[in-house]
Amino acid sequence: MEADKDRDIANQHIALQQPYPQDIHAVLRELTAALAEQRVKIAFLEKENQDHVTKLKELEKKEIETDKKVQQLQVKQVAFSASLLDQGHGDIGPFNTQITLIFKHVVTNIGNAYNPHTGIFTAPVRGVYHFDWSLYGYGNIGTGGVLFRNGENIFLAYEQQTSGGVSASNGASLLLEVGDQVSVRLWAGARIHDNQNHQTTFSGHLIFTM
After folding, report:
1. For burial by CB atoms within 10 Å, which of 49, 56, 151, 172 has the most?
2. Is-contact 156 144, C-beta < 8 A?
3. SS3 81
4. 134 and 200 in contact (C-beta within 8 Å)?
5. Which of 43, 74, 105 is where one domain is finished?
6. Coil/strand/helix, residue 201
7. pLDDT tens, 37-89?
């Protein structure tokens, strides 16, 4: 009898330690609900993170645009004016081929876009620029120079007479991209003159950016 009593007590302890089926289902429901809640939180965090990434890209884009505007503001003042000879007087030409004229006597070079060592103007910003060139010569040889953009013949200034002094001039407004180069080339067979009066000149300036 004592042994049977002990078995009953042992069986009761085992029964108390084993969960009932309904308890297992309750735990599973709680785990499922917790998992669903975590998934919702993860989805929210992912969306929030994506929003942050989108905002960051927008800020980076605005920063780039701001940098471009600042750069344009910094270089919007571009102007130069130079004459052919820095000192004394003399002639250039004639030659069988065109040559780039180097206007050495620089009186204005705001923005440093004109190079007095090469005679070439390089556009620092995209925009519309205006150029003027005036050439002086004499005698029975033509006086002429052509405006070039990246090797392209734009406009020619040319005059010729049998004797005395003669001048030729022209102007042009050009849409230039950053890095485009503009220069004046002596017309083949022509001759130009310059002296202390600085009669042979090349000038240009930025009208507006684009």
Report:
1. 172
2. yes
3. strand
4. yes
5. 74
6. strand
7. 888 888 888 888 888 888 888 888 887 766 665 555 556 799 999 999 998 89
Tokens of residue 41, six digits: 């939180």
Which of the listed residues 74, 91, 112 is the one where a domain comes to its end?
74
Strands 143-149 and 201-209: unpaired
Name the residue range of residue 68's domain.
2-74
Beta strand 201-209 with 127-138 is: antiparallel
70 and 120 assigned to the same domain: no
Look at the pTM and tell me if it is higher than 0.70: no
Residues 86 and 166 in one domain: yes
Which residue, 166, 103, 167, is CA-closest to 131? Answer: 103
- Nearest Cα residue to 144 out of 153, 152, 176: 153
DSSP letter at 20 equals P
**What is the spatial distance between Cα 31 and Cα 174, in angstroms, rounded to a whole number?**
73
CB 178 within 8 A of CB 126: yes
